[in-house]
Amino acid sequence: MKIKEYNKINNYKLKQSNDDKYCTLKFSSCDDKFPLYLLTKEELKAFIAFAKKIENLTWKDIKTYRGLKFEEIENLIKPDNISKDITLCSLRVSQKFRIVGFRQEEHFYIVWFDAQHKSY
């Protein structure tokens, strides 16, 4: 109770984590460098299986699930439509295939479909 009272008095809002929310994939930031339409039939199947799996996971699960290998990548050159202060991340779809994008709240905005693991 004291925490709520303190926050109310000082107009201070605690930063809330979205790690308990389920991930949603967004395609609105996709770039032409590694586009979806260049994926092979097998890569598309792998991506669909990945999307089905990830929609049932919270961000806490995604960050700790070793098979997805969630990692932030500081040194990637971003497309012009991506703010320079955003940190890109990758998620493993298969052994070679990654998706690269960025997280905002519970959403993961896909930038590249990196089927050959060439973006970094």
Characterise the protein shown here:
This protein has 120 residues and is an alpha+beta fold. It has one domain (21-114): YaeB-like fold. Helix content is 23%, strand content 22%. It has 3 helices and 5 strands; from the N terminus they run αβααββββ. The chain has helices at residues 2-9, 41-54, 59-64, and strands spanning 24-26, 71-73, 88-92, 98-104, 107-114. A 5-stranded mixed β-sheet has the order 1-5-4-3-2, with no helix packed on it. Strand 4 (98-104) and strand 5 (107-114) form a beta hairpin. It is globular, with a radius of gyration of 17 Å. The protein starts with a helix and ends in a 6-residue tail after the last strand.
Order of helices and strands, N to C? HEHHEEEE
Categorize the overall geometry: globular
Report the average pLDDT across residues: 87
How many strands, what sense, and barrel or not for the largest sheet? Answer: 5 strands, mixed
Note the beta-strand portion.
Answer: 15-25%
The neighbouring-strand order within the major sheet is 1-5-4-3-2
The structural class is alpha+beta
Q: Please count the beta strands (DSSP E, at least 2 residues each).
A: 5
Helix content: 10-25%
What ranges have pLDDT less than 50 throughout 5 or more consecutive residues?
1-14
SS field, number of helical segments: 3
CATH fold category name: YaeB-like fold
